[in-house]
Amino acid sequence: METKSTVLKVTTIVNAPINKVWKLWTTPSDIQNWNSPSPDWHTPTATHDLKNGGSFSYRMEAKDGSFGFDYAGTFDEVTEAKYLEYTLGDGRKVKIHFIEVDGGTQIDEHFEAENQNTLELQQQGWQAILDNFKNYAEAA
């Protein structure tokens, strides 16, 4: 019997044009600068092949070296400056919409929850990363 995963959503509006937002979201050197939920975490490496069927791997680590993991998977659908869909190594799906709005870009991320952390903790962590991206993109 297949169980349906809980899908969570995080969102923000970035005060920057959609093409700039897309570039900063999808360039590995930029990903290394924003892909963390708090100042005590970082992404020392980020690589990907940004195309349908392409793979990606972003190494996330605590700066004190106490913990780290690879956030990796395969891109299922890449539509430039509009949409990303990918499957993580554990089979969970992530869908990201980039929507042009007055004065900026709205980003909506829908992700299937995992079973190790509370839904609240996952929601907070993903939102913190998205907020970090917003701050990075608006300062760039």
Give an account of the 3D structure.
The protein is an alpha+beta fold. It has a single domain (7-139), classed as 2-Layer Sandwich (Alpha-D-Glucose-1,6-Bisphosphate, Chain A, domain 4), CATH 3.30.530.20. The protein is built from three helices and seven strands. A seven-stranded antiparallel sheet has the order 1-7-6-5-4-3-2. Strand 2 and strand 3 (55-62) form a beta hairpin. The mean pLDDT is 95. InterPro entries: ASHA1/2-like_C (IPR013538), START-like_dom_sf (IPR023393). It comes from Niabella ginsengisoli.
CATH class category name: Alpha Beta
Tell me about the biggest sheet? 7 strands, antiparallel
Low-confidence stretches: none
The topology string of helices and strands comes to EHHEEEEEEH
**CATH architectural name:** 2-Layer Sandwich
Task: List the strand order in the largest sheet.
Answer: 1-7-6-5-4-3-2
How many independent structural domains? 1
Q: Can you say what the CATH homologous superfamily is?
A: START domain
- Say how many strands there are: 7
Mean pLDDT: 95
3D shape: globular
- The proportion of strand residues reads 35-45%
Structural class: alpha+beta
As a percent range, the share of helical residues equals 25-40%
Domain Activator of Hsp90 ATPase homologue 1/2-like C-terminal: 15-138
InterPro entries: ASHA1/2-like_C, START-like_dom_sf
Protein name: SRPBCC domain-containing protein
Pfam families: AHSA1
